[in-house]
């Protein structure tokens, strides 16, 4: 039997195998770095989108609520005609009786500036030190017919455009709502006030006063690092054009009644902390905030007019 011989038959040398392995490691390492970089960029884009979404949501919500502040239904909004000698605004944590609601109506909003460490809102939740608090008052946009039963503890406002004094009373005294509109008793609107604040754990929340008491706090957005508020105070009431001063709380009773717009700042951070903005400075509302923790940060600034108190011609100087 003849043997078949194969010439030039051989494998890879050790050197060739080592070179191939090194090239493979280089290629794999490059792919890994590229994938990691791509993943980091995607995470950063996601974090920026999260912060932008949260900031836009809060900015839009507060702008709408501020714009509606002082809306009490269908009657003349000349508070001075309704209350010739307004009393001081009730405290934001106070129980709101019928008399207290009438007393509060000339003050569509009030606020607290620069919360101190350990401050508790209405003897309850601890707030984030250094942030601001704002309270907004208005009535519901939804009318309720007196054909239906009213909530006993809820304060309602009834008004018409006939130039008469509006009626303010509890739901368990429905007979007091005797203003007529188109031959029947005019509908009523539920009165409410809402506090907006940042809790100690960096959650932006609100508490609404309805049915004779404050309801439980409602978390709105997480990872809010700061909330600052400035009030645009008109030089006069109902006169245009007018000059504005941007002031922080506390204000005098007269100044609270002449607030026609609110400028607020929200500093938000992403939940993902893979990026570092440590050392970055944000300059706003007369303060400088230095970032001290990781995460994607963005500052939102909004100037929101109070539509029910805005004169015909106002020039807002946002550079102040």
* Largest beta-sheet characterization: 8 strands, antiparallel
Helix percent reads 10-25%
Distance between the termini: 105 Å
Poorly predicted spans: 312-316
Judged by helices, strands and strand pairing, the structural class is alpha+beta
Task: Evaluate the radius of gyration.
Answer: 30 Å
Q: Report the total helices.
A: 4
What string gives the helices and strands in order?
HHHEEEEEEEEEEEEEEHEEEE
β-strand number: 18
Tertiary shape:
elongated
pLDDT average, as an integer? 85
Strand content: 25-35%
Structure notes:
This protein is of the alpha+beta class. The protein has a domain at 40-71 and 105-136 and 194-309. It has four helices and 18 strands. The protein has helices at 14-68, 79-82, 98-104, 253-257; strands spanning 109-112, 120-121, 125-126, 133-139, 155-158, 167-170, 180-181, 184-185, 188-198, 204-210, 213-214, 218-221, 224-234, 244-247, 259-269, 281-284, 287-290, 297-305. The strands form five sheets. Strands 1, 4, 5, 6, 9, 10, 11 and 12 form an eight-stranded antiparallel sheet that branches. A hairpin with a 2-residue loop joins strand 10 and strand 11. It is elongated.
